[in-house]
Design a protein that fits this description.
With 135 residues, the chain is α/β, with parallel strands linked by helices. The chain has one domain (9-126): Response regulator (Rossmann fold), CATH 3.40.50. The chain has six helices and five strands, in the order αβαβαβαβαβα. A five-stranded parallel sheet has the order 2-1-3-4-5, with helices on both faces. It is globular, with a radius of gyration of 14 Å.
C-alpha cells in the first residue's frame, strides 16, 4: 500500500462561490494551478454557499459579491462568524470597503488587479495573515 501524498494533506481547501459557471471554471483552473491549493467545491449562489461551507469545511471561501444581491454581505458575515476566512471578489470595486467591514479577509476587484493576487490572498486568509495589499 502506498502512503498518502503528504502534499495533498497540506493543501489549502477552497470553496468557490460565483453565479457565473464560466467564472467558477476559470477560478478553479487558476486555484488548482497552484500546488498548495485545491478546490473542494463550487456554489452558484450565496444560499448554497452556507450549506456547502458546513458540509465541506473549506479552509477559505472565495465569495463573489453583487450589488443587486445584498444577501452576499449577510453570507459573508455568517462565514466570518463561523471563523471561516473569506476572500471577497466582485466586478464592482465600490463593494470592497463594505466587504472588509463585513469581515472579508481581502477584497479583489475582478477586473482591477492581477489575478495572481487571488492566490496570495487565499494563502494569507488561510493562515490568518494580514493582506498587505489592503483592498
Amino acid at each position: 500500500m502506498v502512503p498518502d501524498d503528504p502534499r495533498k494533506a497540506s493543501k489549502v481547501r477552497v470553496l468557490i462561490v460565483d453565479g457565473d459557471a464560466r467564472v467558477r471554471r476559470a477560478l478553479r483552473s487558476l486555484i488548482e494551478s497552484s500546488l498548495d491549493l485545491t478546490v473542494v467545491g463550487e456554489a452558484g449562489s450565496t444560499p448554497s454557499a452556507t450549506y456547502l461551507d458546513l458540509e465541506l469545511l473549506p479552509d477559505v471561501v472565495v465569495l463573489d459579491l453583487l450589488p443587486q444581491a445584498p444577501e452576499g454581505m449577510q453570507v459573508l458575515r455568517e462565514l466570518r462568524d463561523r471563523g471561516r476566512p473569506v476572500v471577497a471578489i466582485s466586478s464592482v470595486g465600490e463593494l470592497g470597503p463594505q466587504a472588509m467591514v463585513a469581515g472579508a479577509h481581502a477584497f479583489l476587484e475582478k477586473h482591477g488587479r492581477d489575478v495572481d493576487d487571488l492566490l496570495d490572498m487565499i494563502r494569507a486568509a488561510c493562515h490568518h495573515d494580514p493582506w498587505p495589499g489592503g483592498e
